[in-house]
Amino acid sequence: MLAKKFRLPIGQSSIMRQKPAWGTYFSYRTLPNELAYSRYGVQVSKKVDKRAVGRNGIRRTVFDFIRREKFHLRPGFDVLFVSRKPVARGEKKVAEAELRTFLFYRN
Q: pTM, whole model, 2 decimals?
């Protein structure tokens, strides 16, 4: 799991005003910050998966991917991933490939 300092605070409403970039599995909202590291958040609604186990699994998958690939060490951004319905029934590797392309080409 990603360390708490690399996760977005729950009340971070200013990032929701940003225009999203759309992918197949996630929409992405980014906002520059003035920290030496990036912070990430994941929103998974009940429309994506009714069970809390499924929603938490999606969150864990995204945070673990960010930790493994060391994206949290890149400076300067707050990133919010809002999951879409296909992520619940899609393949984990394809969703990670989409995350990788977005995070590599964001800077």
A: 0.85
